[in-house]
Design a protein that fits this description.
The protein is an alpha/beta fold and 439 residues long. 21% of the residues lie in helices and 28% in strands. It has two domains: 280 residues, Spore Coat Polysaccharide Biosynthesis Protein SpsA, Chain A (Alpha-Beta Complex), CATH 3.90.550.10; 124 residues, Hexapeptide repeat proteins (UDP N-Acetylglucosamine Acyltransferase, domain 1), CATH 2.160.10. Strands 2, 5, 7, 8, 10, 11, 12, 13 and 14 form a nine-stranded mixed β-sheet that branches. The protein has a seven-stranded mixed β-sheet with strand order 18-21-24-27-32-31-30. A five-stranded parallel β-sheet has the order 17-20-23-26-29, with no helix packed on it.
Length: 439
């Protein structure tokens, strides 16, 4: 059974959203070894793609393309099972994987090239405005406010920006804007003197003096609203222009009206293992920076119709436990437990993410595994886990210790069953960790 979204006719009917699925996702490896970045699980129950898609739906934007070129099967499956619109609506969410054609024989070469290659798919739509989003950001935005600023200023391009700290600034495209909000300069990931030259007085954008002192740069969020015709002109002007930050935006500033739209709420680029780990754990905080419990703008995902979780003799603090779990005698602190997790007695999990399982193992299958000396899907007795990410369908045996007591920053196990990135232990999807293993 699926959720069907009924959407009324409105002023945003000629707006199409394009969500960029990113490249190979090397910064999120090994979580992206078998899936694209937008398909990576989030908060035990969701996928990263659910965030921008839900923002679109909550903003009355219901014509949505998701562009990807790596490991798109699971993303396709999730979207086809989750997002269905009423037959009386023109709404859709559709994955467009990179394809080789006579005119475009190459893979996507960058963010702008990805959009350039999908333009033929827009010919049958009455598009006048293109909303371009990223598939690996965690934030809640009403795009109607973004679009209304774009329309009211008569801009050809509007860039959503966020104030940032000096230590963050080198990782972003930075910009300067005049008193009218028009962007007059843009530099992609500047360093040294080029970075210092991009400092601005962010009090003019509504920050108080203390905030402006700590966040003296304006960073592009990688979220854009384009006049569709002007974007087509830019993309056709030079086929060597493949990236929005490096080429398209600087060219647009020279030729067209480019505006900045300030976003002051929580926003996190979770494209790295550390950022992904910290953003997930924060969701379980008493006052999280991102609140999944906001009923006014819900984050949608696939309805799985699982039974309530069963917790027996457990100690749980500052954690989230998803549906369909069986936890027996477990100590859990500041952790996320995903769907269908089966965790046995004596297990202690601290500051970790357990993504759960795609299936329930039957009692017969579990007994058969025991007879074969193979752990069941889940976590076996008396196992200790700290600062770890346990991907889906993992089998962890009894008396295992995943603790990284030596503080190793980077490690690849020869059998690829365990990795360490930024000091965080990662057990990839479908791996088996034998009884008594210590990391």
């Amino acid at each position: 059974m699926q959720v069907f979204f009924a959407t009324p006719m409105g002023r945003y009917d000629n707006v199409v959203a394009v969500i960029l699925g990113g490249g190979a996702g090397s910064r999120l490896f090994p979580l992206t070894s078998e899936r694209s970045k937008p398909a990576v699980p989030l908060a035990g129950n969701y996928r990263l793609i659910d965030v921008p898609v839900s923002n679109c739906i909550n903003s009355e934007i219901t014509q949505i393309f998701v562009l990807t070129q790596y490991n798109s099967a699971s993303l396709n499956r999730h979207i086809s099972r989750t997002y269905r619109f009423s037959s009386f609506s023109s709404g859709f969410v559709e994955v467009l994987a990179a394809e080789q054609t006579k005119d475009n024989p190459e893979w996507f070469q960058g963010t702008a090239d990805a959009v350039r290659q999908m333009l033929p798919h827009l010919r049958d739509w009455r598009v006048d405005t293109l909303l371009i989003l990223s598939g690996d950001h965690l934030y809640r935005m009403d795009y109607r406010k973004f679009l209304d600023r774009h329309f009211s200023t008569g801009a050809d391009l509007t860039v959503s920006v966020i104030p940032c700290r000096p230590d963050e600034a080198p990782e972003f495209g930075l910009l300067k804007a005049n008193e009218k909000g028009e962007i007059v300069e843009f530099k992609e990931k500047p360093k040294g003197e080029a970075l210092e030259s991009m400092r601005v007085d962010t009090t003019s954008f509504g920050l108080n003096a203390e905030e402006a002192a700590s966040r003296p740069f304006l960073a592009s969020m990688g979220i854009y609203v384009f006049n569709y015709g002007k974007l087509v002109e830019l993309l056709k002007a030079d086929d060597s222009w493949v990236d929005f930050g490096r080429e398209i935006i600087p060219s647009a500033i020279e030729k067209y009206t480019v505006q900045a739209h300030l976003f002051k709420d929580y926003w996190e680029d979770i494209g790295t293992i550390r950022a992904f780990y910290e953003a997930n754990l924060d969701l379980a905080a008493p006052l999280p920076k991102f609140n999944f419990f906001d009923a006014s703008a819900p984050i949608y995902t696939r309805s799985r119709y699982l039974p309530p979780s069963k917790l027996i003799d457990c100690e749980i603090d500052t954690s989230m436990v998803s549906e369909g779990c069986i936890l027996n005698g477990v100590k859990l602190r500041r952790s996320i437990i995903g769907l269908r997790s089966r965790i046995d007695s004596g297990v202690s999990i601290d500051e970790s993410i357990v993504m759960g399982s795609d299936v329930f193992e039957t009692i017969g299958e579990i007994r058969s595994n025991i007879d074969d000396g193979k752990p069941h899907i889940g976590i076996g007795e008396n196992t200790l886990i700290r600062r770890s990410i346990i991907d889906k369908n993992v089998r962890i045996g009894k008396n295992v210790k995943l603790l990284n007591l030596n503080g190793i920053e980077t490690y690849d196990a020869p059998d690829r069953s365990v990795y360490i990135r930024d000091g965080i232990i990662i057990v990839p999807k479908g791996s088996t960790i034998k009884d008594g293993t210590e990391i």
